[in-house]
Amino acid sequence: MKRFLVFWLIAALTPAAAAAPRVRAAKPVVEFAPYAERALKDFELEVVSSADGITQRLPVTDGALFVSKAGGDAEAQLVAPNGQMPSSRESLFAVRFFIVAGGKLYSGGRGRCGAWDGDVSHCVASCDDGRFALRRNGAAPLELLLGAIPGGVGGTGGGIAVSECGFEEDGGAKLVTRSGRGLAVAGFGRD
Fold first, then answer.
1. pTM value?
2. d(Cα 103, Cα 45) in Å, to the nearest integer?
C-alpha cells in the first residue's frame, strides 16, 4: 500500500509538461563567426575619408554575421526548402554584418535575403542596394558571396555599405572584394 501511495504522489506531483516531448523554441537570431582563420582573406574594406576624400583599402581582419527573422525563427529560415517564401512576399530573413578592419569595428552592414535557390539566397543591402548572396551547404555551413555572384545580377561588384546609412563615420565604408578578385567567398560557422 505504501508503495502505491508513493507512486501515486510522484505521478500527481510531476507536471504534465515533463512527460510531453520537448519542442525547440523559436530562435529569432543565429550568430555566425569566420569558419577558419583566413576566411575573410578575399575581402577588403574601402573607406573614403570625409575630410579629404581619399579612398583607402584595408584588409578585413575579423567579422560576424547575424541572421534574423523578426517575429519568427531564423533557424527555420536557414533550412527552409529551396523556393519557399513567406506568403506576405517579404524577405525570407535579414542579415547584419560586423566587420573589423584597420583596428575599427564597422557595424552598419544590413541586408534582406530572398528564397533559397540551389542553396543560394540573393540579398540586397539596406543602405545602398548593394548585392551579395549567402550560400548554405558549401565548404562552410554558411558562405558570404560578394562580387561576380553566379546567377546574380550583373554589375554588382561595387561592394556593400557597412557604415551607417548616413556615412557620418568616415565618409563611407564598403565591404568589397580584394583587388583582382571577381568573386570573394568567406565561410562562416556557428559561434
1. 0.79
2. 12
DSSP code, position 25? P
CA angle 104, 65, 174 (to 5 degrees): 50
Tens digits of residue pLDDT in 112-130? 999 999 999 999 988 787 8
Closest C-alpha among 77, 95, 102, 65 to residue 187: 65
The Cβ of residue 14 has, within 10 Å, a number of other Cβ atoms equal to 10
Rounded distance between C-alpha atoms, residue 177 and residue 165, angstroms: 20
List, for residues 149-167, the tens digit of each pLDDT value. 877 654 445 788 887 765 4
Query: Any bridge partners for residue 63, and if so which?
Result: 99
Residue 73's CB: how many other CB atoms inside 10 A? 17
CA 180 from centre of chain: 25
Closest to 129 measured CA to CA, from 106, 101, 153? 153
Residues 6 or more apart whose CB falls under 8 angstroms from that of 80 comprise: 92, 115, 116
